[in-house]
Amino acid sequence: MYKYKTITANDLKTKGISMVAEEVAQYGEAVVTVRGKGKYVIIPIEKYNELREYELLAALEETRKAIADGDYVIESAKDHIKRITRD
Questions:
Q1: Are 25 and 47 in contact (CB under 8 A)?
Q2: Comparing C-alpha atoms, which of 1, 53, 45, 54 is closest to residue 20?
Q3: Of 40, 37, 14, which Cα lies nearest the Cα of 29?
Q4: Given the DSSP bridges, would you call strands 37-42 and 5-8 parallel, antiparallel or unpaired?
Q5: Nearest CA to 32 among 45, 46, 15?
Q6: Are 63 and 39 in contact (CB under 8 A)?
Q7: What pLDDT, in 10s, does the model give residues 48-69?
Q8: Residue 31 buriedness (CB in 10 A; 0-12 / 13-18 / 19+)
Q9: For residue 30, with 0-12 CB atoms within 10 Å meaning exposed, 13-18 middle and 19 or more buried, which class applies?
Q10: Which parts of the chain sit beneath pLDDT 70?
Q11: β-bridge mates for residue 5, sequence order
């Protein structure tokens, strides 16, 4: 189970970024709540970049699998736009 600090939107507004920096330094991330519900996650930029890299690697692997399985279409940009915008 993840351990993280929750920060209310009101605390964020009144105490500012220094509070966020302290909580993220201690817990590694923080969840901002709005009206008692988790709404946003604050993480260090390095962690965000790492997560984005994992996301891109997963997309690349999915693309490689589609190509290996022959699950793709060769078409012009115009035909592609027509195909993906059909109702």
A1: no
A2: 45
A3: 40
A4: unpaired
A5: 15
A6: no
A7: 999 999 999 999 999 999 999 9
A8: middle
A9: buried
A10: 1-4, 87
A11: 30
